[in-house]
Structures are given as structure tokens and as C-alpha cells.
């Protein structure tokens, strides 16, 4: 999952609050009748981020009543990815959006997470640079200075995965911690390139009129992207809840892909700060996110990608021992 993400305005900032706020539901749809609240089963989801246009499929599924029709009332908990690992692992939350890397590391620590549906079809990290730097492939990074927001987290994992997939030694590239100021570091010439989310910093640069080159980590790595994650207890005891939530969410993803403009409109209704003077940014971020939702079978992850992810995580030192990847995911809830 992430499921898992300093922006020029608040809704695109990374979730760096000191702690996650209490779960709060998205606005109740006003275009369709609602079922009595006491007939709906509450389900908590740790989003690992903040309310954002990147969650358009959730807003769509909420607005169109897909969750309600499935008998669910989804409560959203916005915070760090690590919150999702801890809360779902301890059965204090039902689901979380987490990256495949987070799930693998959790299982290596005997935290019983299970990845049940893909949300992003690839690991969403990219290396970007101004066009005049002529950095168009990983080999062009050798000898260059690359800015990272930190030497941990999803961006760092994605950076390491790129080097691993392109067979480049870490020592061949100069890295610098620039915090969450990659765009400024690039534009001010402090670094030659930087790492960030493919639907975040590169979008900022392009909207600022900069010509850039972007190297997608997913073109060189099979690292599993963000997905919907629960735990072994829920899989064993409440499989029907997983089936209902994944089916409704996948409908939301498909609707978003089929009609992005309508999805953006629904998102702005639920998240007004995504509109107004920020509408152009929201549109651009949504457009950059659409490719991450596309999948021949929405929600499905190829078992070979899990095997490749586990191998990379071990070879790169993120986990110490082999783990049984067949236990950390399932595709049985995917329509």
C-alpha cells in the first residue's frame, strides 16, 4: 500500500505531523440517499498521508456511494506510513495504505501485515533534473550530486532500488540530504538531480515552467508500489470486509481512470482547498497519478514482483533474512 509521501500549498505537503489525528470520515455524499448509520460496518484506514487529490478514487467511491452500498462506513486516519504499520500490525486499525517495501520490512520483524490490493502499480519514486544537465539515464548520474530528502523512507528506498536495478554502486554517485526542499535544491543549482515522488516535485517544476528530465525508478525496479494492507487476523476472521472494501475501491479507481475530470470535480467538492487557485496544480497532480492506477487487472500484483522486491530488500540490506513472500500478499480479493 502506503501505502507510504512540503508543497507550495498545504494539501500537497508531506504528512509530517507529530502524530496522526483521530479517524475522520470524508464528507457524506449528498447526491444519493444514505443508509442508516447503524446498519453500516465501520472500517478504519490509515492513509499514510494527508487529504490529497492523489486519493481521488477514495473520494469518488465515497461520493458515488460504493462504500455505503457495500455496507461500510470508512473512517480515515491521516498520518505517517509508520502509523499504518504499527496500528494495523497491532489490530488497532483495519487497513493502511503502505508500500511493498514497508510490508516486507514489517514481516521481517514478525509484524503480520498482508497486502491485499494494489493502489499504485509501481513504486512512485523518480529522479528528476533540469534538462540542461543532460541526465536522461541512471548511468548519467555517475559522478553527479543527487539530493535526497533523507537517508531513510520510501524516497531513499526508491533511490537504492534504482541503483540496484541499473547496477550502479552507491559510491559512484554523490548524495546530499536536502530535506524536503528538492525543488529549491534543483533550481538553485545545489544538486544536479534529486529524488522525490513522480507525481509531486516534477509536477511542481513543470508548472513553474522548467524543462526537466525524469527517470522513473519503476523503469529499473519491480519494487511493489503502495497498496491496501491489513493483517493476518483480518484475513482469517473478516475476509468479507476485505472483499467489500477492495471491490468498492477498485470501482473508484476505474471511475477515476474513465473520467478524470469528473473525479477531480468530486475531489474538489470534498476537498475545497484542491480547487480555486490550486485547481491547476490539482489537475496536474491528478494527471501525473493516473498512470500509477492503470493496470490490466486493477488491484493485482504479479507474484514475480514480490519475489524481486524481497530479493532487492535483502541484497540492499533493508532486511537481514529471507522471508516467505507467499505469506505477505494475496490476490484472492481482486475481482
Count the beta strands: 10
Q: What's the pLDDT, averaged over the residues? A: 90
| General form | globular
CATH architecture classification name of the largest domain? 3-Layer(aba) Sandwich
**How many independent structural domains?**
2
Taking pLDDT < 50 over at least 5 consecutive residues as the criterion, the unreliable ranges are 1-33
How much of the sequence lies in strands comes to 15-25%
What is the chain-wise order of helices and strands?
Answer: EHHEHEHEEEHEHEHEEHHHHH
Strand sequence of the main sheet, in spatial order? 2-1-3-10-4
At the first level of CATH, the class of the largest domain is Alpha Beta
Classified in CATH, the superfamily of the largest domain is Periplasmic binding protein-like II
User: Tally the helices: what do you get?
Assistant: 12
Alpha-beta content class: alpha/beta
Under CATH, the topology of the largest domain is which? D-Maltodextrin-Binding Protein, domain 2
Let me know the largest β-sheet.
5 strands, mixed
What's the short story on this structure?
The chain has 335 residues and is of the alpha/beta class. The protein contains 12 helices and 10 strands. Helix 4 (100-108) crosses helix 12 (303-315) and helix 9 (239-258) packs across helix 10 (260-270).
Structural description of this entry:
The protein has 2 domains: 10-122 and 225-327, Periplasmic binding protein-like II (D-Maltodextrin-Binding Protein, domain 2); 125-219, Periplasmic binding protein-like II (D-Maltodextrin-Binding Protein, domain 2, 3-Layer(aba) Sandwich), CATH 3.40.190.10. The protein has helices at residues 56-63, 66-69, 81-89, 100-108, 153-165, 182-187, 201-207, 232-237, 239-258, 260-270, 279-293, 303-315, and strands at 41-46, 72-77, 95-98, 113-118, 125-130, 145-148, 174-177, 193-197, 212-216, 227-231. Strand 6, helix 5 (153-165) and strand 7 form a beta-alpha-beta unit. The longest helix has 20 residues, at 239-258. It has 335 residues and is an alpha/beta fold. The two termini are 18 Å apart. The strands form 2 sheets. It has a 5-stranded mixed sheet with strand order 2-1-3-10-4, with helices on both faces. Helix 4 (100-108) crosses helix 12.
